[in-house]
Amino acid sequence: MSNESEVPSNRSDRGTDRAQLLLVGALALAVLFVALALLLNTAIYTGNLATRDASVDATPVIEYVSESREAGVDAIRSVNDRNNSDPAELASALHLTIARWDEQASYHRAVAGDITAVEVGPITNGTRIQQDDESRDFTNETGEENWTVAAGSDLSEIRSLRFAVEESTLPEDPSIGADEVFTVEIDSDAGATTLYVYDTSGGGGPEIRVDDGGDTETCSSGTSGTFAIDVANESVGGVPCPSLSDLTDVGDDVAIEFRDSHRAGGTYSMVVDEQPSDLSTLGVDDVGSGSPYWTYAVYSAQFNVTYRTEDVDYATGIEVAPE
């Protein structure tokens, strides 16, 4: 009898153990599900924050900086044309011109609740050298054929270098490098680059050749008659000529030389980054003394640009130098 009574007791213990195991497993699963839910919620929240930060629209800032740069280029060109009596007058005119533009631009942006400002920072003064008498050849004012346009130990940059050459003034099919063509040579401590300008025989039209002391490239003009050699935009008569950039890729101690300048005629202009009094050689007189001549010029300027909204606080300095 005693053996029969022990069997139900063992079975009851085993059932209790199973129930306890099921309960513990259920609790473990519940804890795991809660943890996964927390992790998922955290990921969703982080993603929302990232999406909110990425949604800040930078387009107005980019547009404003671009507009400020364009306004600066236009302002420098304008004051160089109108206010070139001395560097102080140039600086005053540039500050006034930008202040007027800033006032109008700020009012426009304020409609959208944005706060903007542009201020003129440091100015680099220079010299503009030009000939605007298209009936004249490229000799200096006294008729010298081989002459130094400008030179200086601190002269290190040239901008806005352009020629408008009349094709009929060029020798046809000459021997390049044999003192038979108009030549521009720009020397610096980084080396020398030479530009040859001539006409081709048989109605082929004008050409130029650029020699940087190693590689040589010949470029043909896409137009006849008066054609442009636009060093700043690397083109001849509207046709791309990338090697022209070698003429302004210079080091320090720059010298700009014209050779056989009686073999070409038209107009030209350039801006260098030193004032007339700081150049060791300036082969032209000031404006009013004849052609070619020099004037004071702003070579470049830094503008301090700020743009503020509820979501953006942006400030930068941009260098502005007309090409």
Give a description of the structure:
This protein folds into three domains: 11-55; 59-125 and 302-320; 133-290, Sandwich (Jelly Rolls). It has helices at 2-54, 59-82, 87-110, and strands at residues 115-131, 147-152, 158-166, 182-188, 191-200, 205-211, 216-220, 226-230, 235-236, 239-240, 254-259, 266-272, 281-282, 285-286, 293-308, 313-320. Mean pLDDT is 86; it is low at 1-7 and 43-54. It is built from three helices and 16 strands. The strands form two sheets. Strands 1, 3, 8, 9, 10, 12, 14, 15 and 16 form a nine-stranded mixed β-sheet that branches. It has a seven-stranded antiparallel β-sheet with strand order 7-6-5-4-11-2-13, with no helix packed on it. The radius of gyration is 37 Å and the shape is elongated. Helix 2 (59-82) runs antiparallel to helix 3. 31% of the residues lie in helices and 34% in strands. The longest helix has 53 residues, at 2-54. With 323 residues, the chain is of the alpha+beta class.
